[in-house]
Structures are given as C-alpha cells and as structure tokens.
Amino acid sequence: MEDLVSLLNTLEPGIVIFDNDYKIHHINRVVLILFSEFSSADIFGKSLMDLHQVSSSEKISKMIGLLSTSKRQIPFSIKILSKDHRYRYLFMKLISLLSPGMDESLCCALMYDITTFISDKTMRLLKIPVGVKNEIKLIDLKDVIYIEADNVYSRVYTGSNNYFSGLSLRMLYDRLPHKYFFRIHRSYVVNLTKINKVKKEGGNLHVSLHGTDKPLPVSRNKSKEFLRILGLK
Length: 233
Prior knowledge:
By secondary structure, the chain is of the alpha+beta class. It folds into two domains: about 5-120, Beta-Lactamase (2-Layer Sandwich); about 125-230, CATH 2.40.50.1020. Helix content is about 25%, strand content about 40%. It has seven helices and 15 strands. The chain has helices spanning about 5-10, 30-35, 40-45, 55-70, 115-120, 170-175, 220-230, and strands spanning about 15-20, 25, 75-80, 85-95, 105-115, 125-130, 135-140, 145-150, 155, 160-165, 180-185, 190, 195-200, 205-210, 215-220. It has a five-stranded antiparallel β-sheet with strand order 2-1-5-4-3. A five-stranded antiparallel β-sheet has the order 10-9-8-12-11. Strand 1 and strand 2 (about 25) form a beta hairpin. The chain is elongated. The mean pLDDT is about 85.
C-alpha cells in the first residue's frame, strides 16, 4: 500500500466542527458527499454521533475522550455503511480548537475516505451504481461513454445525462472490464467502443467519442499503450 501520508495528500477531507456535546456547528461540502443520506438540515445542530452507527459512535466517543487527556491530534479509522449499502472506510483525525480565551470548547474532525485504497479490487462491476436524488440507479456498462474524476469520487457520462458515483475513478477502473474500458488520463476513463476519432496536435493526443462533443486528453505516459490497444501502433 502507498505511504499513508502520500495518500492523504491526494484526498480532500470532510471537515466537521463540533462542541463538547458533539453538536455540529460547521461542515465543508465533502461531508455532504460522505454522508449523502443526510441533508444539510439533518446535519447542522445535530450530534456528530447521529451520522454514525452505534459501533462507530462508541469508537469516536472513546477517541474524543483520549483527545481531552492527551492534548494532541488523535488519528483512527472507522467503517461506515453508506446509503447504497456499501461499506466505506474513513481515516479520521480529531483536533482540539482553542478559543480567544484559550479554552477547548470546540473540536475539529477531519475525515478522509480511504475506501479506494483498501477495498477488494477483484470484484468486477456488471453495472455502475450512481446516485439519483434519494435513489441508487444502476447504469449499464454499454451506456457509459466516459467517466471523469470528481474530487475523490467520480461522474459517469452517458448519452443524455451524467451521474455522481460514490466510487472513485481508481476504484471504478479497477473493477471495469479492461477489454472495453481504458484509463487515458488520471481524470478520465473511456469506453473504447465509443471512440470515433483520435487526433494528434503538437505531440498531444485527444479522443472524440460518440455521444459527446467534448474531446478528452490522453496522457503522454498512456498514449503508447492506448494506440496499441486501438491497433494504431
């Protein structure tokens, strides 16, 4: 596994500011993605523990207790069950915050979604699960034109729509059939059957796909293998 520090540098954390009664005062937008089954109205003013299952809440409570006695950052990991019934793994850091009066009445929780780096990559996807309002929709692989990285998650593009997926681009690509899908860039995976044109300009490759007017770049370190797969080299 890659060095943990390097991994965390690539991830944007969810941030929660809460008080000694666990009441949530501030969050960032990543928290709304991590806990998408809750609306912002469900989160603000509620307890941090309401976001978690009992087992996770007990662990968080224990770690907060350690924070109050150790006076230093407390790192730990927990497992949560998301609304699409998939387990996610969060690496968390708890940090005490000082007020102007130097009291520690607030805490900050940093939450990093590390699911991509520890999940089983052998499980192949037959369909891609995406979020549509309060439902989970399953997208047929043949309907996918390309997939784009969306922070630590991804966005799936079909002919008429695009959908948010709670899986990272890396996790999706690892579980897609590579006979039909290729990662042309750190931000893009394309359906090889949708390619209708490859264009080279100034040493850079771009691909055009059926169903979208957006040309996608091919990384230089991917171009040789990509052209070989297409039978162009």
